[in-house]
Amino acid sequence: MFEGWDAVGLARAQFAFTMSFHIVFPAFSIGLASYLAVLEARWLWSGREVFLNLFNYWLKIFAVAFGMGVVSGIVMSYQFGTNWAAYSDKTGPVIGPLMAYEVLTAFFLEAGFLGVMLFGLKRVGPRLHFFATLMVAIGTLISAFWILSSNSWMQTPAGYAVNADGQFIPGDWLKIIFNPSFPYRLVHMVLAAYLTTALVVGAVGAFHLWRDPHQAGARVMFSMAMWMATLVAPIQILAGDQHGLNTLEHQPAKVMAMEGHYQSHKDGAPLILFGLPDQEAATVRYAIEVPKLSSLILKHALDAPLKGLDSVPRQDWPPVPITFWSFRIMVGLGFLIFGLGLFSLWQRWHGRLYDSRPLQAFAMAMGPAGFLAVLAGWITTETGRQPFTVYGLLRTADSISPLAAPAVASSLVAFVVVYFAVFAAGIVYLLRLMSLPPQPGEQGPPTAVPARAAGITPAAAAVAKAES
């Protein structure tokens, strides 16, 4: 199956595969934890039962998604040790503490309050329970903070020194944590997480409105999701534009790959909408382009010069085809989300938000769009950084463990089989939970194993209860 692949290519494929499974769950958990905090706050403020029902409904879904994210994330740390030992050795003094800070802050906070959030509403009271929910939501954001700081340092390294053993060692922790690209990545990722969750909530609400337009819980969740798409999508587009300008300043080769600019343009670069990048020939075949528009977007001037990959040594070129297309998928989905928000606003204005079949169909179709956009954005970021793990300083080929290709291939096959079996079951279970409408008196996650599931007959359970 992997004939002709070397250990570097196989290790990259394995990391890409496992990371693609993992990244969607934290993105969903970050947004859903904040959504749960908003639902509980609105219940406490208004006293309306519909918000409590929705809280319990989405709490069960959050519990499963959060657990899947934790399990899939554990694999990441093991891969650094098995496949990327050289990288771990070189960057450990910088990356290791950043990961430890995440554990000491985010993981401890989430672990301390997650049980109360899941099972404690009737035990600790509404106010303390809301505090626990808020802490879990804040914990997910803190986790994103440290993970994105670590990844951003790999993209735009700062505040480091190199010792005699070739290791990156901390010189200035503030510069390491708040490296040049970090603020842009943090804002872009958190907004992406909120939009991803809003699209899922909106799709579930639309699905149940399609069946029953008078379903109270579906109406509330659909309205909230459409407001999020309406308000946050344009902010995300602006944040993405600023992130792109930052990338042009610090990682110009990545932007060249995203734009498909193999050649430099002295008097204004075109915006290539579509085409087939040819890495060998260094050209984009069948290009559909708008003259000078890329210069206008990136330099805010039609005739501004833009360098191309011909100004970069060929051995430092990112893989243009995948970076070029993943970027377009991300941007295209972003504008579709923006369109969904505008359409929902139009229908809301005309009083048809809850009974518009076209809007409901559009919202259901866009349910997975946030996950796809997150994946496309991650692929753009990581492939555009190649051929480096630490941009401009440490090559991917020099980061791998001394492993033979067959060893990496066998573990990759094992991951594929296990992941598709385990996570497919989890995703099917999540979809089953979402297919059920929120009900009056909706209960949260069960606090005990049902008697039948534990192998106890109802009669025996009744006797045991009577004896107790």
SSE blueprint and pairings:
Layout lengths: L6 H40 L2 H34 L2 H35 L1 H4 L1 H30 L4 E3 L5 E3 L2 H5 L4 H30 L4 H35 L1 H8 L11 E8 L4 E8 L2 H7 L20 H30 L7 H9 L3 H17 L2 E3 L3 E2 L9 H31 L22 H10 L1
Antiparallel strand pairs: 1-2, 3-4, 5-6
Helix content: 55-70%
| Principal-axes shape call | globular
The averaged pLDDT comes out at 87
Total separate domains: 1
What's the number of helices?
A: 15
Q: Strand tally, please?
A: 6
Radius of gyration: 24 Å
How would you describe what is shown here?
This protein has 468 residues and is mainly α. The protein has one domain. 69% of the residues lie in helices and 6% in strands. The chain is built from 15 helices and six strands. The protein has helices at 7-46, 49-82, 85-119, 121-124, 126-155, 173-177, 182-211, 216-250, 252-259, 293-299, 320-349, 357-365, 369-385, 405-435, 458-467, and strands at 160-162, 168-170, 271-278, 283-290, 388-390, 394-395. Strands 1-2 form a two-stranded antiparallel ribbon. Strands 3-4 form a two-stranded antiparallel sheet. Helix 1 (7-46) runs antiparallel to helix 2 (49-82) and helix 9 (252-259) crosses helix 11. The chain starts with 6 loop residues before the first helix and ends with a helix.
